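Dear U.,

For the methods section draft, I wanted the exact inputs and outputs in one place so we can describe them consistently. I've listed the two proteins in the order they'll appear in the manuscript figures. Please don't edit the token lines directly; just add comments below if something needs changing.

First protein:
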Amino acid sequence: MKKTNYLIEDILENERGWVFYDTNLKLFRKIINSVSGNNIIDIGCGGGLMIGLLKLFNPKLNVSGFEGSESIRDIWKTRKLEVKTGDIYNLPFKDNEFDTVLSSHVIEHLEEPEKMIKESLRISNKRVIHIVPEGNVNEKNFGTPHLKIYNRINFLNYFNQKNIKVINYESIQDTHMSSLFICIEKK
């Protein structure tokens, strides 16, 4: 797996643009309305923007993050966020440890996305939410390359083949970059 190392300046620059895209605000509403339980983790949390917003809008939530690198530990510390690091294919958490597991714009960067999805299901006891960009958006991507391109059919088909209970699946449209949102309930 390729390592992603971002400088704090890169993270802050990306986050400044976050609120200007309609998709991000729509996705945040989808996420906050889909969370089940109080113990939430964001896999591939970056600078922690999403877990910070979740905590801001619902202080009762126990939110944490996971990243593959320590390169931006300073920003997590400044934001008072709990973030663990390690191997995304072998997450350092117990089975069913979290009520809701979230990943947003992570899976498409992975060489073996199925392994990460399997891990997200392993550590969740209620719900899993995954968000990926819709279509080939590499020309709009400022981070690490997208190794997998998802569309409305192939993303849903992966979950249908695994006999996973999908409770919400949507394409969230935006002029910049549309996203696919899937919410899974553990059986």
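Second protein (the one for the lower panel):
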Amino acid sequence: MRRSRIKEKRLYPRIAQKIPLKVAADGYGFITATKNVSCIGAYCHIKKYVPPFTKVKIRLTLPVAGTSRKVYHLDCKGVIVRSEDEKKGGFNIAIFFNEINEAQRKTICKYVNQFLPNNPPKLQKRL
């Protein structure tokens, strides 16, 4: 029996990569790593509950492909769109990058694209 290919419904694909991330919200600072990331957001784990719709400052540290010494530090702002209680302690949060410049978004897209298959499925037009 053949496995059917699951179609990605997201406009921007996400990848499961651990990327160093600093999140600042309501006077608290968290140093963590992404569980997954896309051009428009990130999913990560933090120790303290921060409710959805909280505005956050973000510093994402992207390694440059092919080297372990060079990194890009991207500073932007976002909003928490989901906060989930983690059974082992802490919280998983989804962050939407709502204040990011186009050059930064392109840098993240370039990073994400290096982990995608050579011929990703074409995105279907949303109705």
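Candidate sentences for the figure legend, describing the second protein: The longest helix spans residues 102-113. The first strand starts at residue 20 and ends at 25.

Thanks,
Y.
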